[in-house]
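Appendix C: a fully annotated inverse folding record. The material below is reproduced so that readers can follow the format used throughout the book. The structure is listed first as tokens, followed by the designed sequence.
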């Protein structure tokens, strides 16, 4: 629920000190933009009771995730602080340690999504709603015209629910895969059902198998994995000073052209124009390729739909064949940068006749 009175207080704090948004430490931001505004409003006038932090584990830097929890742990202990916090996250080890600390263990209540009563029914609702949208989509009308109804059968939906193991991301990924505009949805379902169920007890084991199956079906797996590796390295290290360790020209190019990431990757891998984009084109169920009003090369945003795909690629015991060795990728991208710089230098010398 939107709180107008709280929004006004936060706006006033920013107007008084605009540097809070960019230069202030995280704890000072919380104190000035959340704690003080909340405490300045009489309890009976405060029209909000809970702040929702959705997907804490999606924050790139684990240290920042921990800092956020530590700041919140202090807040809930403040006398008179009127708000509670609803935090959603995967149970990452470093976050579990903070939640198990003496500051938070008695101030929080853990709710495991896969143990919540009715979660399977909710996932079934998500699947049924998705299949209804596919059936009503004109582009699939001819492909599904002769398919027996109901489509898919209740037995198939039940099987997909069982495979999800209480994880909504499995259902979401399955629906994106099945609704691919370049394939027959009924054939896509058969592919999903044809994946042998994992014997692992991990709730994400079947999701890992689905990721593997999708990657196996791209036209050029080797090229696709190279592009994915470079995306991982560039995106991760934009937050860890990677650009400072590489030659200034390349670091500046990456920083200034973040929205043209595929253009940079094409240059570093010596790919033809558009090859990086088409390498990822069959992975729309895993990666979002958002194109703006201009050419994709000028205005393209690349995002993984879920952090579990990032973890799948970087954890060898999960991805096996499709594992991305981050350290090896660092070396490869550094070598590509040096090669690119040398080539550019040689071309410049040729142009000037030196």
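Designed amino acids, in order:
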């Amino acid at each position: 629920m939107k709180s107008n009175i709280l929004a006004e207080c936060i706006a006033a704090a920013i107007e008084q000190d605009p540097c809070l948004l960019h230069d202030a430490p995280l704890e000072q931001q919380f104190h000035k933009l959340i704690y003080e505004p909340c405490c300045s409003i009489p309890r009976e006038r405060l029209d909000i009771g809970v702040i929702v932090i959705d997907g804490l584990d999606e924050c790139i830097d684990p240290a920042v995730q921990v800092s956020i929890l530590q700041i919140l742990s202090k807040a809930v202990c403040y006398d008179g602080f009127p708000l509670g916090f609803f935090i959603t996250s995967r149970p990452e080890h470093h976050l579990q340690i903070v939640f198990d600390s003496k500051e938070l263990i008695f101030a929080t209540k853990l709710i495991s999504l896969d143990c919540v009563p009715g979660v399977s029914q909710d996932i079934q609702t998500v699947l049924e709603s998705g299949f209804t949208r596919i059936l009503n989509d004109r582009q699939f009308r001819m492909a599904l015209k002769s398919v027996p109804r109901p489509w898919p059968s209740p037995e198939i939906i039940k099987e997909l629910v069982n495979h999800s193991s209480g994880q909504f991301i499995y259902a979401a990924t399955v629906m994106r895969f099945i609704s691919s505009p370049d394939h027959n949805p009924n054939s896509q379902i058969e592919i999903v059902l044809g994946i042998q169920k994992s014997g692992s007890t991990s709730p994400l084991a079947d999701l890992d198998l689905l990721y593997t199956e999708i990657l196996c079906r791209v036209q050029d797996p080797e090229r696709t994995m190279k592009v994915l590796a470079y995306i991982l390295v560039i995106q991760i290290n934009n937050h860890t000073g990677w650009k400072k360790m590489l030659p200034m020209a390349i670091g500046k190019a990456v920083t200034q052209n973040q929205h043209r990431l595929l253009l940079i990757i094409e240059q570093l891998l010596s790919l033809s124009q558009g090859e990086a984009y088409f390498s990822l084109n069959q992975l729309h169920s895993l990666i979002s390729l958002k194109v703006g009003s201009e050419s994709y090369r000028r205005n393209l945003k690349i995002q993984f739909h879920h952090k579990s795909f990032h973890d799948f690629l970087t954890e060898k015991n999960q991805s096996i064949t499709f594992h991305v060795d981050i350290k090896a990728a660092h070396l490869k991208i550094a070598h590509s940068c040096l090669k690119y710089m040398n080539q550019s230098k040689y071309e410049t010398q040729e142009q000037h006749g030196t």
